[in-house]
């Protein structure tokens, strides 16, 4: 896209006083501004992006998109430079729409999923179903871009420039279908407002991210934005109505003029009526608008049935034949780091790795393992530093209430003192064993496994590093589980 130039107005923006320069690129970070760039100076959580307008002008910015506060911060500088200034009272939304116009293409059929837990799982299952149906599909989110085309991503919902650059590349690579995660940060910051969605899904709503959102209501409102604002009228909302907040989402989507597909155990258009568990998976019985189906799922965990049915609902919402969608379900495979069987001891005891990092997820993951396990359940749990502090004792409590033995360890302490985070988790699990070093905690957990037992290593899932201070040390729960099992069962050379 190097030498491309388009007018500011063709990006949907009007410069003050009618200014309409040619734009050769867009950037939200002044350090990425080049000659001809439109610099989006956004209000930040730490600093206003307008503080960097001076630098952007020196690098040759042709226009600045900002809010009234930003315009005031750099008024003299911008007047002196004669740069085009666009002032918006919704600058992040304007940036999202501009990024969509600049990059110009996205996979034709797109869905987004929000909710506290299950976004990565649902979007990955949507992608797997599409691929099973012969379509060229990807999912985008916490685990990057995966499927028929792949790329790394630093965020669950990337900021608009990265997002639309990625979507345009995916489209250029022949991707016609994409399922993305809508994080509450992403929705709050309008990161996906420029994406054209066919359908949107809601999984559940419990505690997380109260470090960022001021209240539970603010956190809910951010998520509700997917249905209240981002989804076009005429789109279809696919909503888990077992969660009380799902019922509120249905009302919000209907008020917006959206079609609604409800999914649930207690009822719904897609209604889970039966579930039978065994050591390697489960059989599901469900009804789609009154017609009954029975399908095998090679997945551990009762909640995965909810995720899979939500995913099926989303694919149906995009126009697929329901029977054809349900035929793909036996082919679905574990989402990386989500109830993933990592290793098995010689005595048959299994070690699972899961990304449970909220109180509800810890409880759900452990409860979900019970029907698959005859012996004891051992849990390894920790909480991240520089994140919601209120969830720490609740995560400990969720582990203590649902496992027979708990080991509290470190999970990305970041800038905090690891022992303080562990103490907060231990407050909810006073009987737990405390082992700061995660590798040692895994070794102890694996060592405790007797025949018929199972170990759940919670919190890091697919992650490949342990963040301590500013350092990211290589660490992979799946790998550590294998190493521990091999060492204890004498399989090491
Ligand atoms: C808390 C949060 O979401 N912050 C996002 C926000 O940054 P901010 O408001 O804090 O930015 P700031 O540091 O105050 O700077 C203000 C502005 O000045 C700009 N700037 C800054 C420095 C400079 O030299 N030049 C410059 O232009 C910045 O690009 C920014 O636009 O806007 C930035 C640009 O759009 C984002 O990159 C940044 O995400 C940061 C990196 C982040 O870590 N976000 C995480 C918490 C996040 O978004 N997580 C979610 C959810 C994960 C989950 O579900 O669990 C995700 O979707 O990944
Ligand atoms: N439907 C569900 N209900 C409750 N817990 C779930 C559900 N689906 C997944 N979980 C739990 O949440 C964890 C994270 O799942 P997943 O990665 O799919 O969620 P996410 O919403 O993408 O998380 P993130 O906020 O990190 O992006 C899983 O490892 C599991 O423990
Ligand atoms: N996206 C989540 C992931 C948390 C995973 C856990 N391992 C941690 O570091 O807290 C967050 O950043 O809050
Ligand atoms: Mg995710």
UniProtKB/TrEMBL annotation:
Which residue range or ranges hold the Mur ligase N-terminal catalytic domain? 23-100
* SUPFAM superfamilies hit by this protein: MurD-like peptide ligases, catalytic domain (SSF53623), MurD-like peptide ligases, peptide-binding domain (SSF53244), MurE/MurF N-terminal domain (SSF63418)
Tell me the residues on which N6-carboxylysine occurs: 223
This protein's GO CC annotations: cytoplasm
Key words, A-Z: ATP-binding, Cell cycle, Cell division, Cell shape, Cell wall biogenesis/degradation, Cytoplasm, Ligase, Magnesium, Nucleotide-binding, Peptidoglycan synthesis
**What region holds the Mur ligase C-terminal domain?**
337-461
* Residues binding meso-2,6-diaminopimelate: 387, 411-414, 459, 463
Q: Name one GO biological process term.
A: regulation of cell shape
Q: How is it modified after translation?
A: Carboxylation is probably crucial for Mg(2+) binding and, consequently, for the gamma-phosphate positioning of ATP.
Q: Which pathway does this chain act in?
A: Cell wall biogenesis; peptidoglycan biosynthesis
Q: What is this protein called?
A: UDP-N-acetylmuramoyl-L-alanyl-D-glutamate--2,6-diaminopimelate ligase
**Organism, as annotated:** Sulfitobacter brevis
Which lineage? Answer: Bacteria, Pseudomonadati, Pseudomonadota, Alphaproteobacteria, Rhodobacterales
* Name of the gene encoding the protein in the UniProt record: murE
